[in-house]
Design a protein that fits this description.
about 15% strand, 4-stranded mixed β-sheet, 3-stranded antiparallel β-sheet, Endonuclease, Chain A, about 45% helix, Arc Repressor Mutant, subunit A, alpha+beta
């Protein structure tokens, strides 16, 4: 095989393998170690023993080199999160998870994590690469992320249908049973988002009504039947009919089902069709962020009031939030 054929063969092999080839693959194609050595620093860049990049050494190439060099390795942690389109910092490096003791080989720019606990249900394929699942990726990140960021990842995973609450909870419980690092943080996230009992609607409505009254908002109508009420569906939790504003309250601290979210969106569209605005608040907002809820309600009611000047004088100066909502109303 002449030099031109060797180069062409290497390029063809690399293009089929993410621009990464191993010495065994090259030898199987009839390319000698001497021919490989002659091309190092030009066509080939050695990333670790027996593994070469062909052309530019990008993040993706380093990742594929790590998977080629390490048997039983999986894309993991921040790298897996990016592959699953989870919101993680772009500064997170390249990570793989190696199951079992395995080899101690190192790849520059790649962080190798090790585990003895990796059930088959925790791995999947993403773009052809063996990768930890969304649920397992979040568990792995519990050792480096605070509870607030983990909570954001769980919320994003469920809302974007990357994982179901059941899948997440099962993996979290298994992780905690193993007594692994990050278990306490995951426990708080699970309790907050995935393991909540519904708060009775009457209790949440009572708290919301008390908050609105103490905040000086005009009296709202509970269990209001809006113009689109069909005799079966459509009753809203609280309404200000003069302003054409309704408040819907979510009795769970987490929307656990896609069906519930779909129904919420349908109700919002129906209200908008009749010229009404829907505000949605959950238990956590009413209890833990009452001032933010009041500010939003004040701004919306001021923007949609029949007598704008009277409400503005009653609630004081015009805030930036009021101006923004009024301009878009």
């Amino acid at each position: 095989m002449d030099p031109t054929e060797v180069d062409a063969t290497i390029l063809a092999m690399a293009q089929a393998r993410g621009m990464v080839v191993t010495i065994r693959q090259l030898e199987a194609a009839g390319i000698s170690r001497f021919q490989v050595h002659r091309r190092q620093g030009r066509l080939l860049t050695q990333l670790t023993d027996g593994v070469y990049a062909v052309g530019a050494v990008t993040r993706e190439v380093r990742l594929r080199a790590a998977l080629a060099a390490l048997p039983h390795a999986y894309v993991s942690h921040g790298t897996a999160a990016r592959h699953h389109q989870l919101p993680v910092p772009a500064t997170d490096g390249i990570s793989v998870l190696l199951c079992g003791r395995g080899t101690r080989r190192r790849i520059e720019g790649v962080e190798v994590h090790r585990t003895r606990w990796l059930p088959l249900v925790d791995v999947t394929l993403v773009d052809g690469l063996p990768t930890t699942t969304v649920a397992r990726t979040i568990c792995d990140l519990s050792t480096r992320y605070p509870a607030q960021r983990l909570r954001h990842l769980v919320e994003h995973a469920v809302v974007e249908r990357l994982a179901t609450p059941t899948e997440l909870q099962a993996c979290l419980l298994g992780w905690r049973r193993q007594g692994r690092a990050g278990s306490s943080v995951l426990g708080r996230v699970e309790q907050l988002l995935l393991n909540d009992e519904p708060v009775p609607g009457s209790e949440l409505e009572r708290r919301a009504a008390t908050l609105f009254r103490r905040g000086g908002l005009p009296p709202g109508v509970s269990q209001f039947r809006p113009p689109w009420y069909d005799g079966v569906r459509g009753v809203v939790d609280i309404a200000w009919p003069d302003h054409r504003v309704v408040v819907e309250l979510d009795g769970r601290r987490w929307h656990a089902t896609t069906q519930a979210q779909t129904e919420d969106r349908r109700r919002d569209r129906l209200a908008a069709h009749h010229g009404w605005l829907t505000l949605r608040f959950g238990w956590q907002e009413i209890v833990e962020r009452p001032e933010a809820v009041l500010d939003e309600c004040r701004a919306v009611l001021a923007a949609r009031a029949p007598e704008q000047s009277r409400l503005s004088s009653k609630w004081g100066r015009d805030t930036s939030a009021q101006r923004t909502i009024r301009d878009s109303a």
